[in-house]
Specification:
This protein has 195 residues and is α+β, with helices and mostly antiparallel strands. Helices cover 19% and strands 30% of the residues. Strands 3-4-5-6-7-8 form a six-stranded mixed β-sheet.
Length: 195
């Protein structure tokens, strides 16, 4: 079965077939509904903790600008030939002006971030696989269920996986890569709403 390409997906948006901003991603050639809900709740609703965790990333990662990057939230990235995920967060090289005519690609992204509740298994498996396949250096998964941060680094070429994976708990530090050996350090508890 042949799926959609990035060009076809972009054409569908430009021609109004898919409304711009719809909660849909192109993943491995298929249109997939973005699940931002709380586990056990309506998959079309956005969970309050998910909203908080995504919005919280903006001030927490504001320092990426000092490293020649910018932070984007829930914006498309291009993983050729057939995926346009919209990660909850992305640290992207350069400024937003560098992407006026294209989506950032894997080489532009030292780090992508997903916030997961009901989508936890999908983000652990499918999203991690496509990010690793693309060669994105670091994938950070903010796990709202277990209140931990799962970090995957060093994609293994041709194997759709990361060489290094570890979990960070409250009281520990997460290093969000900005590329070239630089990072923003964040204490884990800053990434979760207070209970």
């Amino acid at each position: 079965m042949v799926g959609l390409t990035i060009d076809q997906y972009v054409s569908m948006i430009k021609n109004g077939i898919l409304p711009e901003g719809a909660p849909i991603e192109l993943i491995e050639g298929a249109l997939v509904h973005k699940d931002r809900s709380k586990a056990g709740e309506d998959s079309l609703a956005v969970g309050f903790e998910h909203v908080w965790a995504v919005q919280n990333l903006i001030p927490v990662l504001a320092g990426v600008a000092q490293h020649g990057c910018h932070f984007s939230s829930q914006q498309p990235i291009a993983i050729h030939p057939d995926s346009v995920p919209e990660p909850d967060g992305a640290i992207t090289r350069g400024t937003i002006n560098d992407y006026r005519k294209r989506y950032p690609g894997a080489a532009d992204l030292p780090c992508v971030i997903e916030v997961a509740d009901s989508s936890l298994q999908y983000d652990r498996l499918t999203k991690k696989r496509i990010y690793a396949r693309a060669g994105i250096a670091q994938y950070v998964l903010i796990n709202l269920i277990d209140r931990v941060v799962e970090v995957s680094e060093s994609p293994v070429a041709g194997q759709d996986r990361y060489a290094h994976e570890f979990v960070r708990n409250a009281g520990e530090i997460v290093h969000f890569s900005t590329g070239e050996g630089r990072a923003i350090e964040v204490e884990v508890s800053r990434l979760f709403p207070n209970a």
